[in-house]
Amino acid sequence: MDWDPILFWVMIILWVITPAFIFYEEIMERRALRKEREEVVAQD
Amino acid sequence: MIEIAASTAVVYQRIVIDIAMYFGLFVIVSMALNFQYGNAGVPNMGCAVSASIGGYTVSALITRIIYWVGTNANIGMKPYATDYDWNYNNQFNTYLMNDYIAEHAMFGMSMFILSIALGFVMGWFMGYIISLPAIRLRATYLIITLITMADAAQILGRNVVWISGGTLGMWVPNVLSWYPGDRTIITAVATMLIGIICYFILRTMLNSPYGRLMRGVRENDLTVQSVGKDVVAIRRNVLMFASGITAVVGVLIAYYYSYVIQSNFIRATWTYWPWLMLMIGGAGNNAGTFIGCALIIAMRRVIIVYKWALESFVWYPIVIFEQQLLATLLLVVMVFRPDGLIPEKLLRIPGIDYRRLVHEETEVDWRVDRIDPSKRGGILSRIRGGGKKEEAE
Question: Which chain B residues contact residue A10 at CB under 8 A?
Fold first, then answer.
């Protein structure tokens, strides 16, 4: 069985998914922080 | 026509594998640098030392272990004890061992895992060694000391033959030769998987109380010291751990090239490029590290591959175009975006309610301080006789 094409596409998927996950996490964290800041300002 | 199309596809596949491999490698180095500089404020200009230690671990230790196994397996290995034999019999012995590993997959896999583990331990130990004279110093002197150590590591590799073959370099056995296809693809996949593991380890560490302590050291080490924390020990631990992670990259690059030479671990590649990635992306967050890394790797690979086409656009020798790019980008980023493309944000740990922490209604009865200590009760009042008075009353 020729594993090269399978591993090649696994590599591409890892290449795409990892940064996408990290950016998603970063965006969600920034959004949560902004929301908390807005609520704090509204409370004050 | 079909043959030309097929060969073009192969060339593009090679470029994609190369970019993926370098992306994986530099993401690990940049994340380790971000861990040190972005979060603990340790400006490590000696990443090349750690990377070279990883490469030297493969060439000096793992290759010897593999050769020793080959000698005991009686497969006709040539002698390798002296410096001369180590250098000049290296190709033949490596060729024999590649065939041996192709038939013994478990041995190859165990050597791969051992080299990663040993590379980490050696890098960790080297982090301790380089931290001894340097870690108490202020940023400028620390940077100078670490740059010097990177040069020292290269000089050692160039002159001590048994480490990495001296000026000739040396071939290392391909521990993944049991894989029947293209070994670079499996090395790239392994690198990216190790990169993901490193990301989760560093993320967990940064979200832990130790990560907050590291940020405290970065912001004001005097304050952290005043509350009883050992700042020197924290900096040393950070340097050691990140050095271990960077050494793993050295191991992977050794297997990617199947060749180790000291000039593979030059400061420009393993210190200045990762610093540029960190500065462009933005220190203190992993998303910035990733975007900086992706931009620089893509630019560098495109320049290397299409250097001949770019030659007509520049008036100076094209060979220095990469270095020109490094200098120009660094200047532009420092002038226009000193925080990088993605600036650092406040630390947020999932599961902690910050609003409650900051805005909790806390009632403190300050009048307690005005009460005479002898009337408070407890051990002190008993010593002063307050308790007895109350009992008598």
Answer: 189
**B180, B345, B355 member nearest A40 (Cβ):** B355
Encode chain B in three state secondary structure. CHHHHHHHHHHHHHHHHHHHHHHHHHHHHHHHHHHHHHHHCCCCCCHHHHHHHHHHHHHHHHHHHHHHHHHHCCCCCCCCCCHHHHHHCHHHHHHHHHHHHHHCHHHHHHHHHHHHHHHHHHHHHHHHHHHHHHCCCCHHHHHHHHHHHHHHHHHHHHHCHHHHCCCCCEECCCCCCCCCCCHHHHHHHHHHHHHHHHHHHHHHHHHCHHHHHHHHHHHCHHHHHHCCCCHHHHHHHHHHHHHHHHHHHHHHHHHHHCEECHHHHCHHHHHHHHHHHHHHHCCCCHHHHHHHHHHHHHHHHHHHHCHHHHHHHCCCCHHHHHHHHHHHHHHHHHHHCCCCCCCCCCCCCCCCCHHHHHHCCCCCCHHHHHCCHHHCCHHHHHHHCHHHHHHHC
Residues of chain B with Cβ-Cβ distance to A18 below 8 Å are 192, 195-196, 199, 290
Task: Of A14-28, B118-132, B195-209, B306-320, give the lowest mean pLDDT range.
Answer: B306-320
**For all residues of chain B together, what is the average pLDDT?**
85
List, for residues B249-298, the tens digit of each pLDDT value.
999 999 999 999 999 999 888 999 999 999 888 888 888 899 999 889 98
Chain-chain contact of A11 with B192 (C-beta, under 8 angstroms) = yes
pLDDT digits (tens, 9 = 90+) for B338-391: 888 888 877 766 666 655 555 555 454 544 455 555 555 555 454 445 444 444
> B52 falls in which pLDDT band (50, 70, 90)?
very high
